[in-house]
Amino acid sequence: MTAPATPSPLALLQRCHLESLQRAYDEVLTRLGLDGVLLFSGHPRRHFADDQEAGFAAYGHFMHWTGQADLARSWLLIRPGQRPRLKVHAPDDFWHLPARLPDEPWVEAFDIEMARADAPPALPAGHFAVLGDVSAALAETTGAARNPATLVAALDESRVRKSDYEIACLRDANHRAMAGHRAARDAFLAGGAELDIQLAYLGGSRQRETALPYASIVGLNAHGGVLHYQHYDSVAPARRRSLLLDAGHRHRGYCADITRSWAGPDADPAFAALIEGVTALQRRLIGELAPGMDYVDLHRRMHRALAELLADQGLVHCTPEAAVAQGITRAFCPHGLGHSLGLQVHDVAGRVNGAGRPLPPPETDPALRLTRELEPGMVVTMEPGFYVIPMLLAPLREGAAGGDIDWSLVERLADHGGIRIEDNLVITPTGHDNLTPPE
Hints:
This protein is α+β, with helices and mostly antiparallel strands. It has helices spanning 9-31, 60-66, 136-142, 149-158, 164-189, 194-205, 269-286, 295-312, 320-325, 328-332, 390-398, 407-413; strands spanning 36-40, 75-78, 85-89, 111-115, 128-131, 145-146, 217-220, 242-251, 254-263, 379-382, 385-387, 418-420, 423-428, 431-434. 34% of the residues lie in helices and 16% in strands. The mean pLDDT is 96. Keywords: Dipeptidase, Hydrolase, Manganese, Metal-binding, Metalloprotease, Protease.
């Protein structure tokens, strides 16, 4: 008789992850007086007056158990002390391939029903909650409480610190994304248009566009200064000054989020020096990552370091302290230093403490998405930047700070757009581990 195959290291990590999840849910549900929770994966939305559906990713808490980002209209019932029950929507269909589960050891931890209908499973008597993108009418049919805030907050907090399995998935997602970045860089240096670069990224990272965790930002020249630039020009510009590429990968539900900037053959030498400066700045800030670090304080340190860089490169003629105080650094970098990362690119519970108390960002930095103290197991991005954004710089030109900025150098850099260097890091008990491989 053939001996059963030995589970892979990842499968063993996933088994521990699921066992830990069961214990965490048991504790939370019991504490809140609930007999169970029903998680709905969600469903894609149809375009108006059409039968075509928009892109889709399953509900985060559903993915926390299954890792299945594209499993729509499916349900997962979790009850203390009982095996999870997974109802997969797999209708008879000759237009589309019905949903399937992977042939992997983790499925053995679930009681699985492959169902033609997408109705929720019938719940036994008791007190239940239903979570996800569930209408009030549908929730009423289950007899369960719809998205109770206390339960959602507790489960969000359970995703803040990642298990060893989750970190392994995030590391793999980073490696796959970086392969795409290398291919995209080569396409840029070969003279490709934004569309060519995006296609090279998809090929290098081995994924289709609908599987991306977010729409890639592929900004040539001035487009790199549009923080969420959303187009792909199909014609290459006459001059290739710069590329900003912000692109990721989703692996087993978990997201990589990496940004790189490159100078082109027509770049001003000052731009290449700024890329080196922002990269060095990011490395310095990464070196400070450790448990107990206040991320808001680290964000403030980023602005101080950026002010020093601007002074060193001759963009400002005042002290670093004055550049920060006058809002100069925030005009050149209006976004936050980073955010939590996991099953969602901007993962949950970034602006609350462990007890669920809100931790709003400073008034000066409303875009900062992570405001809590760092703990072992957290995964965060580190993404300082520098951009020439005319609408943000115009008030400075007209105000008191205008005399402290070298506007001729700003104009030389305007067609280069911007710079962002972004890595993904896990906080360890003694410091940090960079999940993003080198280029």
